[in-house]
Design brief:
elongated, about 5% helix, 28 strands
Length: about 425
């Protein structure tokens, strides 16, 4: 009997708590703050549904109140809300405000907001139409995570940072333009956006964070801006459509698994990179050519493991990189790979693992040339330029990379 009574009292308390509001006007529930003379949208005894337009002011007890806030539980898990328009009078929206509104298709946010709440629209699986504030500066953690119907979104020009998992698992998103002022994108921001094809990054971006584009299976169009720093752990892991990417000469090191399982065909490690971490290019089944500058002294465990189609590795260092893990390259695949090194260093490479396991070691002078991109001569800039995988270019190369010209492999720095 006591247990039944306790359960009944608990249920009554729960109902009372869910219905703790001061007034209901036109189907919207409010709490009133008489001191600041503002109204706060809250939850009532029934969930919201349909098309909701929140007014900028209400009249309560004969007095006007500005609608200034939305409580955290006001709309959370309201599964039948279809559209929601929020006025400019609202200056505060609680974290997770619209979490789990699985029928929400359209959202219009107040134009004066500078920061979106965390988890704002997470798991809004039908959301397709979002109007963001024009002066938004921070797009917070998981704001649109799991919005699986969101195919496009325009980010405002004033944006400066994108939070972790902000668009993770947005499987319908096909392209994204990161505005010029964005300096920071945080971990997992676009993780598992499986239909994302094209990304244009901000010129001011500092780093590519951990798992930022991991498992973006269709990603094929992305340029890393000059000045980019670290390429984080698993940043492009399993991007199987990403076949070409130029690593800028500003990257100091490449983190664990950064390109593991990607579709990269050629990778040119620029002089700025002194360290290639564990598993960085493991499982890149299309990788054919690797260019390693003379500044790279640390190559980690399984860095180039399980690269069955690898054909040529170019190492410019006069001495074998001293911290190259014995399992950086996988044996027996490298029995069929040609290692190109400076002529004076061939014997040194033949004396150290894993280099001595390569099928053949040849002098780098036979068929490779380095050209400063800003000093290309007329003779060097004639017809017949090809990518390393044999695709003819329509014009002379204007980016760093590895090319073929007159039968030579040409590295443009």
């Amino acid at each position: 009997m006591k247990k039944i009574l306790f359960t009944f009292v608990f249920l009554l308390a729960s109902i009372a708590a869910s219905a703790a509001y001061d007034t209901k006007i036109d189907g919207i529930f409010y709490n009133i703050n008489p001191i600041e003379r503002v109204a706060i949208v809250t939850r009532g005894e029934v969930n919201y549904k349909g098309d909701i337009t929140i007014p900028s002011t209400i009249i309560y007890d004969g007095e006007e109140y500005a609608v200034a806030e939305i409580n955290g539980d006001a709309f959370r898990d309201c599964m039948n809300v279809v559209s929601l328009t929020i006025p400019n009078s609202v200056t505060k929206i609680a974290d997770d405000a619209f979490w789990g509104c699985i029928s929400l298709r359209k959202l219009v946010l107040p134009d004066n907001m500078e920061k979106l709440p965390e988890g704002m629209c997470a798991f809004c699986s039908q959301l397709t139409d979002v109007t963001l504030p024009s002066h938004l500066r921070t797009l917070s953690r998981a704001a649109f995570s799991q919005c699986t119907s969101l195919s496009s979104i325009t980010l405002p020009e004033d944006l400066i940072e994108i939070g972790s998992s902000a668009f993770s698992n947005c499987v319908s998103l096909t392209s994204i333009v990161i505005p010029h002022h964005v300096s920071y994108i945080y971990d997992w921001a676009f993780h598992d956006c499986t239909n994302l094809v094209s990304v244009r990054l901000s010129d001011n971006l500092k780093n590519i964070p951990n798992s930022c584009f991991a498992s973006c299976l269709k990603l094929s169009e992305i340029d890393l801006p000059e000045g980019i720093g670290v390429i984080g752990k698993d940043a492009f892991a399993n991007c199987e459509s990403l076949t070409h990417l130029t690593i800028p000469n500003s990257v100091p090191y490449i983190e664990n698994g950064a390109f593991a399982g990607s579709g990269i065909i050629t990778v040119d490690i620029p002089p700025s990179v002194t360290r290639i971490e564990d598993h960085s290019f493991e499982g890149c089944s299309q990788l054919q050519t690797v260019i390693i500058s003379n500044n790279t002294c640390n190559i980690g465990y399984h860095a180039f493991y399980n690269n069955q189609n690898l054909k040529d590795v170019y190492v410019f260092s006069e001495q074998p990189p001293g911290s190259c893990d014995l399992n950086a390259f996988e044996y027996p695949y490298i029995r069929h790979v040609t290692l190109h090194v400076p002529a004076s260093a061939i014997e040194a490479y033949r004396s150290y693992s894993p280099w001595l396991k390569f099928g053949s070691i040849v002098p780098i002078e036979t068929g490779i040339e380095e050209i400063d991109n800003g000093k290309m001569t007329v003779d060097n800039a004639n017809d017949g330029w090809f990518t390393i995988d044999g695709q003819k270019l329509s014009e002379n190369p204007n980016k760093q990379g590895v090319y073929i010209n007159k039968g030579k492999v040409v590295v443009i720095k």
